[in-house]
Each structure stands twice: as structure tokens, then as C-alpha cells.
Model the fold of this input.
Amino acid sequence: MSQYQDIKQLAYQANMQLPKLNLVVFTFGNVSQADRDSGVFAVKPSGVPYEELTPEKMVIVDFEGKTVEGVLRPSSDTKTHALLYKQCEGIGGICHTHSMYATSWAQSHRDIPIYGTTHADHNTVDIPCAAPMDDEMINGDYEYETGHQILKCLQERGLSYKELEMILIGNHAPFSWGINAEKAVYNSAVLEAIAQMAFLTEQINPKAVRLKEALIRKHYERKHGPGSYYGQ
Ligand SMILES: [Zn+2]
Done:
């Protein structure tokens, strides 16, 4: 049996959540689970339909993006995952989808404004939409550069990957992360819900205003502050 059986199983379970949560169609989307002690992660193979996935088919890749174990090709977004794991020590799981509403905001090059308490329960800021990548990045090592684009956006906005676990890439789609693959998938589902609610809010009232600072603080700290009972 593979020495990486545990992370293969976790990555498999997390990937199988994506179609269940209506976050993907066909083979879109990918989730990975890291093993920090071994310096590797398990990621979905490329182009395999969800109904044909098994834990054994997960591909083991190191933080440079090199396949360590597995016969299938790792997800085409693997280098984005590798870079984020390499640069952000606290990340244990990463998820990428083309979920309908979050992707629509990304395609519109818009941050998702913080309109409600669902958003504030998870983040205190608008969900950033990283700038679309320039031609040089696209024609270069595209997936690796996508990772750089995420990190650059966080840095420019003065945000830590520990405070904000979700982002949009302009022209592309969302990425999310967390302490493990399960949390990364949870964050993708939360992001999709936030994106849908923000869209509907603007449809109902094009002049809708951002949530008041007092409510942002209240909701975020209720869940994440020192007196919280949710635990992170
Ligand atoms: Zn994509």
C-alpha cells in the first residue's frame, strides 16, 4: 500500500464533494491535500470523470510540481497548488472550481462586496478579484503564474492567506484553501453562496450598500474572535 494512502483518501473524499455541492460539471475542478511532513500533496488526476475517481487514482506531487507517485497525469492546475503550498506554510488543502456565480464575478473583474452577514461570518473584506494575467504570464508557465497572481494580489491588498481563504482570478475562476482539503472545499462552497447572494442583492437593489463595520466585526468575531466557540 502507498505510504501516502491517508492523503490520497482525504483528497479523494474532498474531490467527490465538488459534484455533490454543485460546484463543478464534467471534469472541472480539483482539490488537493498536503502532507507537510513528507513535503507532498495528493491531487486529482487530469481529465478523469468524478464517477471514475478512486483514492488510488490520486497523484502524489511535490511542492515543485513534480510527480512523486501515480500513473495518471496530475490536474492541469497542479503547479498553482504547488506554488501556494510552497509559499504558504499554513495551507493544508486547496480547491479550484468554475462554480457558476463566483466564476461570473471573476469574469466580470469585480471584487465581491461584503453585503451580508454570511460573508462577514467568514471574511471581513470584499473577496478580491486578482487582476487578469498579462500575455507574458499566460504564454509563460501559466499555472505557476496563476499562483503568483494570487500571492501578488494578497500582498497588494495587505491580506494574509490566513485571514482570507478565498480569491477570484480575473477572467478565470475562484481558488480557495484552508488547513485541509475538506476546509478548502467548504470555503469554495461558502464563496459560491456569497457570490450568488451578492449578485441577487445587486439585482434587487442596484444601490445596495456594504455591510456596516459594526456588523462585520460582530459576525466575524462571534465566529473567529477570542470568545468564539466555533474553533478554527
Ligand atoms: Zn480553472
Notes: The radius of gyration is 17 Å.
